[in-house]
Amino acid sequence: MSLAAGEAGGFTALLLVLVGVIAATKLFGELAQRIGQPAVLGELIAGVLLGGSALKLFDPTDPVLHAMSELGVLILLFQIGLHTDLRSLAKVGSTALFAGTVGVVLPFAGGIAVARLMGIDTLPGLVIGASLTATSIGISARVLSDLGQLRTPEGQVVIGAAVFDDVVGLIILSVVSSMVAGAALTLGGVGLTALSAIGFVVVAIALGSAAIPPLFQLVERIRVTGALGIIALGFALGLAWLATQLGSAMIIGAFAAGLILHPTPQRHEIESSATQLGFFFVPIFFASVGASVDVAALLTREALIVGSLLIAVGVAGKVMAGFAPWWFKGNKLLVGVALVPRGEVGLIFAQLGLAAGVLTNERFGAVMLMVVVTTFVTPPLLGMIAARGTPDDISGPDDHGIDDLVAGRRRQRAQQGKAPH
Fold first, then answer.
1. Measured between alpha carbons, how far is residue 144 from residues 137, 140, 335 in Å?
2. Which residues, 6+ apart, have CB-to-CB distance to 80 below 8 Å?
3. What sign results for the dihedral spanned by CA atoms 329, 334, 336, 339?
4. Shortest CA distance to 111 belongs to which of 160, 169, 198, 184?
5. pLDDT for res 415
């Protein structure tokens, strides 16, 4: 019996669904962490079990649940923006930029080549190729930090390249979103959409960097409990709305809001507040993606073949990106493998394609298989490649952030919180 919010029972049915989602995502997220995997994988599995392929308790097409899922995406992109220091690209310079560029171009081209090989049309092929471009900053940063490698030259190159990958990936996503919405699939149309997305981010950062810091200094003086985080989130939602009005994608607006607020002195408090809200909404998004998976379609010949090919080009493209900066003297294999996980950003691409009807259930399943496998294999591979050092310091203002929402809380933090002060 379906308990989706749109059926008889209305609000009470919604409450029961949310109880199930909260319990299942936290349980399976914890189990995933216990076997050394990011919490997002457990939350995806929880969604599959709650969705139409198993218990039929979670209907991702329900308007209320869909709206909550969309809020989860916006909070996730806002957090990625908050976590993104554009100046970090300058610190690691040409090495990260070159690795990041190759890490976008090769997987994107590989995904389109796989689509052509399998007879998939141009627009679905673009969505498939785009899903291969980004790197999960949250997962990569958490694993490298646990290995004591985050502050090494290799770790800094990975983070700089991942930042670049995500910025370019989101621009590609904005272009693909416009194509899905009916924009002309021509060189001029694609160029105009890309310029619109880039222009929105550049103008938003230029204007916001001048106007926002004084506003948040005023808010900080008021010191109403929770005001800073709520106003920051309102700012992100407002920019998301403005982005849609100007012909760009909602997530570009939320991401730009995070970029604008990253340099502010109040960033850590804003990040902590957004993370607390994200602990509720972001798992709903991950569960929604899992619930959208048709297990029967995933196990079809087409899904398995396409998924296997996407895994191959997805892993190979990122590993080759690690070796691309030939002048870099560090551990190139470590850099390449750390760029492999698609994680939360790949899920956003996949969900966009499915919701717009561009990806069939089989092709959505193939992309999901690629996202899950690339995310699953990265932690153990990095553990074998890296010389394990002392885990990076986990105390201080960065206690909450995108890695908590995607990879899950560290146990050391929980223990630290119980220690007497």
1. 10, 6, 10
2. 137, 138, 166, 255, 258, 345, 402
3. negative
4. 169
5. 41
As a whole number of angstroms, the distance between CA 373 and CA 340 comes to 10
- Residue spans per domain, the chain: 73-270+293-418
CA atoms within 13 A on the CB side of 101: 9
Residue 377's contacts (CB-CB under 8 Å, 6 or more residues apart) are 315, 340
Q: Are 404 and 275 in contact (CB under 8 A)?
A: yes
Quote the pLDDT of residue 407: 65
Residue 92: per-residue pLDDT: 65
Provide the token pair at 340. 């492999």
Helices (H) and strands (E) counted in the chain, each on its own, are 18, 0
**pLDDT confidence of 305, banded at 50, 70, 90?**
very high
Helices within 35-136 (DSSP H only): 39-50, 63-83, 87-117, 122-131
- Please check whether the domain covering 73-270+293-418 is classified as CATH 1.20.1530.20: yes
Amino acid in position 127: V
Alpha-carbon dihedral 372, 374, 378, 381, rounded to 10 degrees: 120
pLDDT at 64 over 60: yes
pLDDT digits (tens, 9 = 90+) for 245-299: 887 778 788 888 888 888 888 888 888 888 888 889 988 988 888 888 888 888 8
Give me the torsion for CA of 348, 247, 176, 406, rounded to 10°.
Answer: -20
Chain segment 359-398, per-residue pLDDT in tens: 888 999 999 899 889 988 888 888 888 765 545 544 444 4
Contacts of 219 (CB under 8 A, 6+ apart): 227, 228, 231, 266
Q: Is residue 164 over pLDDT 90?
A: no
Distance, first Cα to last Cα, the chain: 50
Measured CA angle at 353 (ends 350, 356), to 5 deg: 145
| Residue 105, pLDDT score | 93
Instruction: Extract long-range pairs of 13-20: CB within 8 Å, 24+ residues apart.
Output: 14/64, 14/65, 17/57, 17/58, 17/65, 18/284, 20/50, 20/57, 20/58
Residue (of 11, 32, 40, 35) closest to 284 by Cα position:
40
Of 189 and 55, more confident = 55
